[in-house]
Amino acid sequence: MMKSGKRRKFLAVAAATLASFAGAQQLFGKSTVDLSSNLNGEEINVKHFGAKGDGKTDDTAAIQKAVATSGNRLFFPKGHYKISKTILIDLAKMGYASIRGNGDAQVIMAGAGPAFKIAGTHFGSADPEGFDKKVWSSERMPLVEGLSIEGQHKAAVGIEAIGTMQLTITRVQVRHTLHAIHLRENNRNLIIADCHLYENHGIGIFYDGVNLHQSNITGSHISYNKEGGIVTKGGNIRNIHITGCDIESNMGSDKAPTANVLIDCSGSAVGTAEVAITGCTIQHNRNAPNSANIRIIGKDQSGIGSEKERWGNVAITGNVLSDVMVNIDLQYCRGVVVTGNTIWQGYDYGLLMEGCSNVVFGSNLFDANANYPSGTLPSNKLLVTNSEDCTFSGVQIYGSKDSPGLVVRDSKRINIGNCSLLSCEKVGLLLDNVTDSKVSGCMITALNPDDSSFEPIQSIGGHGNKITE
Predict the structure, then answer these.
(1) What pTM did the predictor assign?
(2) H or E segment to which residue 134 belongs
């Protein structure tokens, strides 16, 4: 053990050395090391490489230098870091990567393209037998955490990912970009958690023609993105889990029709399937054209005519859906289960379903309330056309304006049982050219109990149906 006298002498020498070093830095007019920062080798502070973080200086070159020098462990301390070009995180060159802040750092993207592009080399599946060894040795689980990204260019993007395995984005805010998170080409085993993707003029999370299986989106706010909240288009997409999120008003009044959750298989021969949407609040905005909360376009580019061309296998469970033109829009889907949801204020339709098969609606409430939010009673009707082998059981529809509560048209093998169609106008249930179907055990009431012209069930054309109240 060092004696007390020697210890005091050692501390005095160390203090003098540090003072001399600080004085030398001041003398030469610049500092290469921030002594107040963490220098334990675990993270690379971008300010060590000249980034100012003052919101005015272009910090692109300094951050790129940090990437080129240190590679893969970028830390952004408190500040506003303006960049004009994409920061490329090349996993094959850099190895395991993390981009991290403590919630008090903002990256301002003043140029076109993504603020951060994370590029790996994994273009296979998630099958353990199909991995190149370098993916596990240098590329697995790139991490983006604790940052805010702000766009200052109309073509700015928050984060773009290509060829990644186990990309994890958590506690990140993205605002005023084109797309907040842009997924391209091939990715596997994605996690997006506890994020705020807010007020972007494109899409919140965009699966853009990507080959991506196994992705979890949890605990996030995805709101006011004008071209859709969570959107898949084309590609080969499986196993999307959307859980415990607040997804609101992701459509612009000046934009093409979109949805808070839009799954569009029309540009792909293999589509999107195996999707679970559970425990979310999904709502707004009825002022956007043909707005929807959940819209699934299941038909692929080869057209309609066989079971292989209807994509789906979707579970929609335990959500709150409201205040759009169409709450749930299913087009040419197969294998969809909708149960345990409270669904209200569908101004055109509570449900619009066309060309579907093997769809089950369980205990769901389709409600209408003239007192919220506009004082206008929505249509709230359910319309099923050109569909087959579908079941409605325990569904309650309350209030349908100028229409039957449930309309089934040009369909076959539809089973409707133990449903409540309440306060309907004119007709409760309309079957129009429906064949080989069954209606039983339903409670159907009129909006006006004194309306003698009200028909609980009306059947036009069709054959082979069994109808009992």
Answers:
(1) 0.88
(2) helix 133-134
Give the Cα separation of 378 and 326 in Å (integer).
10
- Token readout for 23 is 């004085």
- The span from the CA of 417 to the CA of 402, in Å, is 23
Contact assessment for residue 261 and residue 247, using Cβ atoms and an 8 Å cutoff: yes
Asked whether 86 and 117 are in contact (CB, 8 A), the reply is yes
Give the CA angle between residues 168, 169, 170 to the nearest 5°. Answer: 115
pLDDT (tens digit per residue) in 306-351 = 555 788 999 999 999 999 999 999 999 999 999 999 999 999 999 9
Task: Give the whole-angstrom CA distance, residue 431 versus residue 227.
Answer: 36
Average pLDDT, the chain: 87
Other C-beta atoms lying within 10 Å of the C-beta of residue 117:
18
Q: Using one digit for the tens of pLDDT, what is the confidence trace for 179-200?
A: 999 999 999 999 999 999 999 9
Largest CA distance in the chain: 106
Pairwise CA distance, residues 289 & 146, whole Å:
35
What count of Cα atoms within 13 Å lies in the side-chain half-sphere of residue 362? Answer: 10
**pLDDT tens across 400-419, in order?**
777 889 999 999 999 999 99
Note whether 284 and 321 are within 8 A (CB): no
Nearest to 253 by CA among 229, 289, 221: 289
Residue 109 structure tokens: 């993207």
Nearest to 271 by CA among 244, 301, 294: 301
Q: What is the DSSP letter of 381?
A: E
Closest CA to 108 of 65, 70, 68, 51: 51
* Cβ–Cβ under 8 Å, residues 443 and 424: no
Residue 368 corresponds to which tokens in the numbers above?
């209408």
Count Cβ atoms below 10 Å from residue 403 Cβ, excluding itself.
18
Tokens of 278: 């559970």
